Amino acid sequence: MSKQFSIGVDLGGTNLRVASYASGTEFLESIQMPTRLSAGREEVVRDMCEAIQSLVRRNYGGRKLAGVAVASPGPLELPRGILRNPPNLPGWDGFSLRDAISQILRYDILIESDANAAALAEQRLGAGKKYNVQSLCVLTLGTGVGNGLIFNNQIWSGTNGMGGEAGHIIVSNDEEAVCGCGGFGCLEQYASASAISRMAREQFGASAPESAKELAILAHGGNPLARGIFESLGIALAIALTGLINTLNLPLYLLGGGVCDAWDLFSPQMFHELERRSYVYRLTKPDCPNPAFLEPNKTYILPAELGSSAGLLGACLLGLEYKPAAYSSGSSKEDMLVH
């Protein structure tokens, strides 16, 4: 791997990031630009491919390109790389992202969900590596709520790529909390940055803080409305985690994303509610919630470690594991494996 490099892409609803990578947690080079959703999906793909091609030309001391992988918001149909009604990419339903990129680059690329890519990076380079864990679940609390699953060192994508959509676990029967997925009462409507902004407007009206960070400042200052919003967030997370823990029984659940900067505001209520609701958690609760090492047969819930670079790092890791092939719209994920 030392004489190879990969290119990873993190496609977000706001920003588009492209990076070259060889090893570790640092990029060789990275490019960031706004995601021009208003210009149309074809222009976004063109921006992406131009950035990829510029990094391919860099060569990096004679290194050979191992592969290119894109971390995209879901839901995704995999391995074909077709988006299916993605809440955070309006107008992209049915778009074959993999084919659109490959037709420009003229070699095959890999598409994976952004949350799965982040989970892979956490398992290989972050908390999973630190604690020697082969299976974990990641919830990313950003504009929406993403979910990635790693079982025995491998991404779990489900039957057709739509596994790991815990952001749409129902945590409330409030029909007013309509989600972009078409349902209501989803975790995403109570535990994301956009949800925090919505709840702040409902509680504060015209004087609502403009960001989750500003709301957190109010909460740290003792404002009861602000503190109540973060407590509601903690309860919503506990409900979702109850289902995940009772079903999956994994050793490690990681929470990442910008919302986790307010960990001290929502986690006490989350742990209190989780212990009340989840019998599996009660039976496997660790003695030390922030350990130097994980006790066997215990359930840990910790902050993720790689920050905002996790999804891009995961895409780069996937790029190292998969090789580009001559373009063929019928190629499968297995066709691109490095044997």
Structure, explained:
This protein is of the alpha/beta class and 339 residues long. It folds into 2 domains: 4-114 and 309-336, Nucleotidyltransferase, domain 5 (2-Layer Sandwich), CATH 3.30.420; 127-305, ATPase, nucleotide binding domain (Nucleotidyltransferase, domain 5, 2-Layer Sandwich). It has 11 helices and 12 strands. It has helices at residues 41-56, 97-105, 114-125, 127-131, 188-191, 193-204, 212-220, 224-248, 263-277, 279-284, 310-321; strands spanning 4-11, 15-21, 29-34, 64-72, 76-77, 82-83, 110-113, 136-141, 145-151, 154-155, 252-256, 300-303. It has a 5-stranded mixed sheet. It has a 5-stranded mixed sheet with strand order 10-9-8-11-12, with helices on one face. A two-stranded antiparallel ribbon has the order 5-6. A hairpin with a 2-residue loop joins strand 9 (145-151) and strand 10 (154-155). Helix 3 (114-125) packs across helix 11 and helix 8 (224-248) packs across helix 9. It is globular, with a radius of gyration of 20 Å. The relative contact order is 0.16. Mean pLDDT is 91; it is low at 326-339.
